[in-house]
């Protein structure tokens, strides 16, 4: 009962803060919108940035490859754990599986990084 009461108090404080911030940002957004109507707006502002080549394409391709590797490792680990092949009850199985999947998925990360390069 005490935990529910304290959670309710925190929720009320949080909601008041969020509501106050939202009204403040809406006022700022209205002012910014009025200024934007006076200047150029929309696609004309970002057309030069959208089609520009990245300043460091090698780093971008490596980062995308890393994301593919880590995301693939997480998805495969969760699938194997959901199917019951790796139980969270046995401590080393899950971590060992994650490391093995990370190493095996290095090939897919390399492929994605080279294709993006």
From TrEMBL:
Main localization category: membrane
Annotated GO CC locations: endosome membrane; Golgi membrane
Record bears the keyword Chaperone: no
Transmembrane parts of this sequence: 59-82, 94-114
Compartments reported by the entry: Endosome membrane; Golgi apparatus membrane
Signal sequence extent: 1-20
Origin superkingdom: Eukaryota
Source organism of this protein record: Helianthus annuus (Common sunflower)
Keyword Membrane in annotation: yes
Family the UniProt entry places it in: Belongs to the nonaspanin (TM9SF) (TC 9.A.2) family.
Membrane topology: Multi-pass membrane protein
Protein name: Transmembrane 9 superfamily member
UniProt entry keywords in alphabetical sequence: Endosome, Golgi apparatus, Membrane, Signal, Transmembrane, Transmembrane helix
